[in-house]
């Protein structure tokens, strides 16, 4: 059983290594974001497997929190790429209201 879990961690490490290569070589920034998101997902898997290997189920809570942070971070980065800001971009895109002087 220990050997299978150790091999699983080794396979996850191989996947992380491949994702690091993709992050370094990716032709577009979206490829790099996807690779970093994949690394975060593999980290969540590694935390879960290690928690199972060590017999500590509380590691699942840590893994769930890390997965949530990974998801929110990815969404924030993609929003920044699309809009150029993380703030309220709807006000910038909305047409401005005419001044009182212009309507008279």
Please describe the structure with a list of short key phrases separated by commas or semicolons.
Helix Hairpins, mainly alpha, 80% helix, 5 helices, 104 residues, flat
Architecture, CATH level 2?
A: Orthogonal Bundle
- Runs in which pLDDT lies below 50 for 5 or more consecutive residues are none
β content, as a range?
under 5%
What is the tally of helical segments?
A: 5
Helix content: over 70%
Sheet with the most strands, sense and barrel status: none
Class in CATH? Mainly Alpha
Structure, described:
- The structure is a single chain.
- With 104 residues, the chain is an all-alpha fold.
- The protein has one domain: Helix Hairpins (Orthogonal Bundle).
- Helices cover 80% and strands 0% of the residues.
- The chain is built from five helices and no strands.
- It has helices spanning 2-25, 29-54, 59-83, 90-93, 100-103.
- α1 (2-25) runs antiparallel to α2 and α2 runs antiparallel to α3.
- The protein is flat and about 60 Å long.
- The model has no long low-confidence stretch (mean pLDDT 85).
Short description:
The chain is mostly helical.
Secondary structure elements and pairings:
Layout: H1 2-25, H2 29-54, H3 59-83, H4 90-93, H5 100-103
